[in-house]
């Protein structure tokens, strides 16, 4: 028998090399075959329900790291709730309507939309959307995300569309839905109206012009030789100018410049004189803004008048104090124009080209109109100044092209009618986890205008509105419910397949259609109305879910998107928010904090990371980042995460290898019979468990990551498992010290593996299979219970003195290793003397009779005499290090004076000699 065979070297099939890309796929197939999700639901059937409602990603394209952050975060929460006393079903969903799918078909797949009917095109859109869903679904499942993948919700599903129509009907019944002609965001590139949530901002270069409007009728207040000066950055809107707005409380002056007479705000005169190069000017007259009310000016290039109007919206922050007003192209313009009885003129078509209502510009794209308008103003001697400047401007978030403000007939949801209910619900009925969440959505809803819910597209849910012979809109409870029922049975394509009369209830009549003829609306609903009614199509439609949801979790952009639209429709229709709490996350940036883009070559693709490193590495990255703000990812960051994973894995592997011969039903040692150091480690772990359970409950992922890494590397690897080798390897297999340590290690593994399962589910499942005394899947296990930590904390506090002196010992050992003469290479070569006071000596002895073992040195003396000059003096104790006397024991590697004196075993120390002689007599027989 060889001496090595007398050591407990530990055994486990939990490999050092993870090989996650291969193992994860095998495990996922096993879980799918075992219906693990259904098993989890069955296990938790009688527990309280916790519902995290999935915000639907858009069904177009491959998933990116933002998707991974979002879906894995949800999965961590769902799994942690499912393992801590809740039934937490998860129904993933997809947003399947909208312009991007239409565009993908025409641009990527070469579909000629104009060569087919709307119904044919919509069927192609549906097929495309479903293909995209399947592709994304496979990627989400590969990330380890659990849920009802065989029964997700899709916004194109007939039952979902029907629920959406019914929410619309409830809002209509309360008078919240109306049709109006007012300026809204219009995207010429999409040929459709946009909601505020569909607008993003980017810098553009715009013209900045000052224009003179000659007085037409000054009503004896202003001479007809005078000219009103306006400033605008949208020359293209001047063909739509019908007025000039002034402030009722501002003072204005008439100044003579050469032979012209200009009127501007008095407070802006000095800055304007510089901008317009008025080197020599004279103030001729003073006015109050209210004096200008209903005066008229000549349009600068059309034979029509512009009305002077008084409005509180006019400020003196910039410009001239006189505001060019085009009621068809601005919200303030619209409101004041309406108050003064002006027409709502918007001379542009859906593509952004001028119509016949802008003579001289017909067919010109509005952006090119800027140059033509400026040239015409020069020709008319109305242009006083031209320059260019860079500023932030609204863009269509899908096409990335500029949008315009344009008045068109649209259907709206009136926010004003229930704004106060919305604001009160924000403050009293929802927990907003992000510190800026509540003020952010509060301010958005407080300041937002009415919601444009109509879209001039084909792929979406039709507005269930009919028109009578005289054009009167029909949206009654009866007609809307009938349409909902039709959609539930046939899907929304039926709207485009049938005539209006065949979509109305049998025998329907209306006083405004004496001949029984009806037409139907051709616009579809804003896709935010689609996803914003998911609580009705999912939470209320499935009896195992609950409304309101316990949590909505999405990116921070959803305060203006899904959080907002869901909140708005739910409060409007149901009187309550659709969620009890909201958790938001930042965006995923590259390692330098830049937005990812193909052109920069900084895109990290989840699929590539999974193929190279494994899904568990991405999941650990998700845990590691503080997603309250924007988060970063790069290959270097992933390498750091992979290294942290390696430490976790290797620590678990070491622990598993040393409990392979441990039978928890027979070998467990009671807590009161453990050594003090084992009790300390147990107490430390109990407190760690409490911390983790609290962090899971608060969704503090980064805190969990830090605590796990610290516990695994500092408390376990650097301390307990480090000195444990002298027990686990060396002591007899069934000895009390070894069983005591195995009890602690087993207990930690038994609770730690479930605790890490929501994050590293593949790795923990692999480890669980190697843990003695457990059965089934770790995903079906429960988290350990939180405990009263008072007694455990008191026990941990008793060890503060030990770790205090341990630091000094380690420092002294480091100095001894770096000594010029006779350096000590390993701590086992050292004999350490600790110079402490009586109280410290007694306290340390009470902690352990084997302090040398805990400090991993061969000999330790505790003395209460003064320290010699050569000792390392620290705050309240001192340490000296010398070379341990004796020789190295061939079995335990400690230096002992008796090594070489035992005739039967000249290479062993007393302890090893006794162990080998008692438990491995064959070793000596072989000798």
Would you write up a description of this structure?
- The chain is α/β, with parallel strands linked by helices and 927 residues long.
- Helix content is 39%, strand content 17%.
- It is built from 30 helices and 33 strands.
- Strands 6, 7, 8, 9, 10, 11, 12, 13, 14 and 15 form a 10-stranded mixed beta sheet that branches. A 4-stranded parallel beta sheet has the order 1-24-25-17, covered by helices on one side. A 4-stranded antiparallel beta sheet has the order 5-4-16-18.
- α6 crosses α16.
- The mean pLDDT is 93.
Shape: elongated
Task: Tell me, rounded to a whole number, the average pLDDT.
Answer: 93
Structural class category: alpha/beta
Radius of gyration: 38 Å
Helix count, per DSSP?
30
| E-strand count | 33
The stretches of 5 or more residues where confidence is low (pLDDT under 50) are: none
% residues in beta strands: 15-25%
Distance between the termini: 8 Å
Helix content: 25-40%
Largest sheet: 10 strands, mixed
């Amino acid at each position: 028998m060889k001496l090595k065979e007398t050591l407990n070297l530990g055994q486990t099939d939990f490999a050092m090399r993870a090989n996650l890309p291969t193992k994860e796929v095998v495990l996922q197939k096993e879980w799918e075959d075992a219906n693990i999700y259904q098993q989890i639901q069955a296990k938790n059937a009688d527990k309280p329900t916790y519902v995290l409602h999935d915000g639907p990603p858009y069904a177009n394209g491959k998933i990116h790291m933002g998707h991974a952050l979002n879906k894995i975060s949800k999965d961590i929460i769902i799994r942690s709730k499912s393992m801590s006393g809740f039934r937490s079903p998860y129904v993933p969903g997809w947003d399947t309507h909208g312009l991007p799918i239409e565009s993908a078909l025409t641009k990527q797949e070469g579909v000629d939309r104009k060569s087919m009917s709307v119904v044919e095109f919509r069927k192609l859109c549906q097929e495309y959307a479903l293909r995209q869903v399947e592709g994304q679904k496979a990627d989400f499942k590969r990330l380890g995300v659990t849920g009802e993948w065989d029964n997700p919700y899709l916004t194109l599903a007939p039952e979902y569309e029907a629920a959406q129509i019914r929410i619309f009907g409830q809002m209509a019944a309360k008078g919240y839905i109306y049709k109006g002609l007012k300026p809204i965001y219009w995207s010429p590139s999409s040929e459709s109206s946009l909601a505020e949530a569909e607008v993003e901002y980017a810098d553009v270069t715009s013209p900045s012009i000052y224009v003179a409007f000659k007085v037409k009728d000054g009503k004896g207040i202003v001479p007809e030789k005078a000219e009103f000066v306006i400033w605008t950055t949208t020359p293209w809107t001047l063909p739509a100018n019908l007025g000039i707005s002034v402030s009722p409380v501002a003072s204005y002056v008439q100044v003579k410049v050469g032979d012209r007479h200009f009127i501007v705000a008095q407070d802006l005169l000095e800055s304007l004189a510089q901008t317009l190069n008025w080197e020599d000017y004279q103030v001729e007259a003073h006015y109050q803004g209210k004096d200008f009310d209903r005066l008229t000016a000549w349009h600068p290039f059309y034979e029509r008048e512009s009305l002077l109007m008084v409005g509180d919206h006019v400020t003196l922050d910039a410009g001239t104090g006189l505001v060019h007003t085009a009621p068809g192209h601005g919200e303030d313009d619209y409101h004041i124009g309406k108050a003064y009885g002006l027409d709502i003129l918007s001379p542009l078509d859906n593509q952004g080209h001028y119509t016949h209502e802008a003579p001289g510009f017909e067919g010109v794209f509005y952006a090119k109109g800027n140059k033509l308008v400026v040239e015409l103003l020069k020709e008319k001697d109305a242009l006083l100044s031209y320059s260019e400047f860079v500023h932030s401007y609204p863009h269509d978030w899908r096409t990335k092209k500029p949008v315009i403000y344009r008045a068109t007939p649209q259907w709206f949801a009136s926010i004003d009618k229930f704004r106060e209910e919305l604001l009160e619900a924000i403050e009293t009925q929802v927990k907003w986890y992000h510190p800026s969440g509540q003020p952010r959505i509060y301010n958005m809803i407080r300041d937002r205008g009415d919601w444009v819910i109509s879209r001039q597209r084909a792929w979406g849910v039709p507005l269930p509105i009919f028109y009578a012979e005289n054009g009167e809109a029909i949206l009654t409870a009866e007609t809307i419910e009938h349409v909902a029922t039709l959609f539930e049975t046939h899907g929304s394509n039926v709207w485009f397949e049938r005539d209006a009369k065949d979509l109305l209830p049998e025998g329907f009549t209306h006083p405004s259609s004496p001949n029984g003829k009806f037409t139907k609306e051709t616009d579809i609903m804003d896709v935010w109305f689609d996803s914003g009614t998911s609580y009705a199509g999912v939470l209320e439609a499935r009896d195992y879910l609950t409304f309101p949801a316990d949590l909505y979790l999405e990116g921070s952009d959803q305060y203006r998107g899904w959080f907002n639209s869901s909140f708005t429709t739910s409060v409007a229709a149901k009187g309550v928010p659709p969620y009890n709490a909201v958790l938001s996350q930042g965006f995923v940036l590259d390692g330098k904090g830049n937005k990812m883009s193909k052109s920069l070559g900084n895109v990290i693709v989840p699929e590539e990371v999974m193929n190279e490193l494994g899904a568990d590495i991405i999941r650990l990255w998700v845990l590691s980042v503080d997603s309250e703000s924007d988060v970063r990812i790069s290959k270097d960051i992933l390498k750091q995460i992979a290294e942290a994973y390696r430490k976790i894995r290797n620590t678990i592997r070491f622990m598993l290898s040393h409990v392979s011969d441990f039978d928890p039903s027979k070998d467990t040692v009671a807590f009161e019979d453990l050594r003090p150091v084992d009790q300390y480690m147990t107490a430390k772990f109990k407190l760690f468990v409490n911390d983790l359970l609290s962090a899971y409950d608060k969704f503090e992922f980064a805190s969990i990551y830090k605590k796990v890494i610290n516990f695994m590397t500092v408390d376990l690897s650097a301390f307990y498992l480090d000195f444990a080798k002298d027990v686990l390897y060396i002591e007899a297999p069934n000895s009390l010290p070894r069983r005591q340590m195995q009890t602690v290690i087993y207990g930690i593994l038994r609770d730690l593996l479930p605790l890490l399962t929501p994050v590293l589910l593949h790795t923990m499942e692999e480890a669980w299979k190697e843990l003695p005394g457990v059965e089934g899947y770790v995903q079906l296990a429960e988290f350990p219970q939180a405990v009263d930590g008072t007694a455990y904390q008191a026990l941990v506090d008793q060890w503060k003195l030990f770790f205090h002196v341990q630091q000094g010992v380690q420092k002294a050992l480091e100095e001894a290793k770096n000594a010029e003469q006779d350096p000590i290479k390993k701590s086992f070569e050292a004999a350490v003397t600790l110079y402490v006071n009586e109280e410290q000596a007694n306290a340390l002895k009470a902690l352990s009779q084997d302090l040398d073992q805990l400090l991993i040195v061969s000999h330790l003396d505790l003395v209460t005499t003064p320290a010699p000059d050569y000792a390392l003096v620290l705050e309240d104790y001192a340490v000296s290090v010398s070379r341990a006397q004796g020789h190295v024991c061939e079995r335990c590697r400690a230096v002992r004076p008796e090594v070489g004196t035992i005739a039967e075993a000249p290479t062993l120390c007393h302890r090893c000699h006794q162990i080998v002689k008692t438990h491995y007599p064959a070793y000596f027989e072989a000798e």
